[in-house]
Amino acid sequence: MSNVDVCTSCRRRHAFYVRHASGEKLCRKCLEKSLLKHIRRSLRGIGLRPRTVISVYLPRSWVLEGLLLLRLVSNIERNYGTHVLCFVPINCAGTVQSFISGLSNVSLIPYRKDELSFPSCMLNSTLHAEELARSFEPFPQAVLLPYSLTDLNEGFLEALLVKQEALSTMKKLYTYGIPWVVLPFKDLPRRDLYALAYTNELIEALNSCPPTSGPTPEISEIVHEMTIYHSELTYRMENSITALMKFRVSTPTKD
Ligand SMILES: [Zn+2]
């Protein structure tokens, strides 16, 4: 095996994926470990109790990412006796069911809901996730959504483009319901998720449940280019939005 093929994390296994921002070459196992680390860190942040109930919400346009999140969370939490309620669009429930056989700590709860256009659908799904979770007894200790760093950056730029209240929309998404609403993938580019989904043969779920809502191709292209060539911008977007919000709040308005 040449050096080009070796995983730069474990230095043993065959690398199949390059992270453009860091230059890391990762094997399937180390990419999965990295995603698990993000999920564990976000769950630690809410002080999850053992033998509790949590929920994962699969928005209609993020079924693949949601499925990946569900599988990883279920694997982490089954050691602690946690039960995972998974809210899934009713027309994707059959597909999702076929990918989660063997996950004994997961219950699927189909929901019926029309999806709004991008990026309003992200915030709207978060509100819907909360509404569904609150209707359950026992009340889930957390609700997890599968938005990636790429989704949040695209959402912010798209909101600016269509002259929505971009800052407040994204601020709500980043901070809404914290610590109860959790976005474990919010610091990870979408490519990381798709790469792992591909090796786990989850990618076929995209054929059955293709996204119905997304940014314009131009926005996707800008964010894609930023992620590759200006990673410092993409990774700092969340901090910048928070800082801008504070600035707006503390700056007196001219009347
Ligand atoms: Zn490795």
In short:
The protein is of the alpha/beta class. The chain has helices at 28-44, 63-77, 93-99, 120-134, 149-161, 166-175, 190-199, 205-208, 217-229, 231-250; strands at residues 17-18, 25-26, 53-57, 83-89, 106-111, 143-144, 181-182. The relative contact order is 0.15.
Q: Which labels suit this protein?
A:
5-stranded parallel β-sheet; 10 helices; two-stranded antiparallel sheet; 255 residues; Rossmann fold; binds zinc ion; alpha/beta; 49% helix
The main sheet orders its strands as 5-4-3-6-7
Number of strands: 7
Order of helices and strands, N to C? EEHEHEHEHEHHEHHHH
What do we call the CATH topology?
A: Rossmann fold
Strand proportion: 5-15%
- CA radius of gyration: 19 Å
CATH superfamily: HUPs
Shape type: globular
Helix content: 40-55%
**Spans where pLDDT lies below 50 across 5 or more residues:** none
CATH class: Alpha Beta
- Termini separation comes to 69 Å
For the report, how would you describe the main beta sheet?
Answer: 5 strands, parallel
CATH architecture: 3-Layer(aba) Sandwich
